Amino acid sequence: xELREQFTDDEWKNLVSLPYAxxxxxxxxxxxxxGAWGESKAMIQEPKHLAAESGxxxxxxxxxxxxxxxxxxxxxxxxxxxxxxxxxxxxxIEAARSxxxxxxxxxPDEAMAYKKWSxxxxxxxxxxxxxxxxxxxxxxxxxxxxxxxxxxISAGIPA
Length: 159
Prior knowledge:
The protein is an all-alpha fold and 159 residues long. It has one domain (8-151). It is built from seven helices and no strands. The chain has helices at residues 9-29, 36-54, 57-68, 70-83, 85-102, 108-127, 138-151. Helix 1 runs antiparallel to helix 7 (138-151). The mean pLDDT is 91.
């Protein structure tokens, strides 16, 4: 059975949108007017770069679909933030839990590759703009740690 066929349409949509959602959660955790451009640029560029490094067939499929729907997926996340800024973070953590559950149907190395790739994108977004002189601010680290917990893995994000 093909990797895509392991998931329902809703599960696949969640897997495809989650890396942008994680990125947006990081951006919202420590908003920076000066850093917004760099973080947005990282959110767009890093999925493709990190997917190529992952060696994962699943990550490659998801990354390709993300690129083909980039504007639509990012706009969707922006709308969700505008609609419920305070609940957005919890929504993304729940989406990560759902993704983790869905990923239980693929080989463990593919599931782990997706989780690490998604978190690495969030980390690159966090590192794209320094807040208070640090590469990853405490609020950014906290959201990445919460998403990592939802995935059931250790993020290992430096403070």
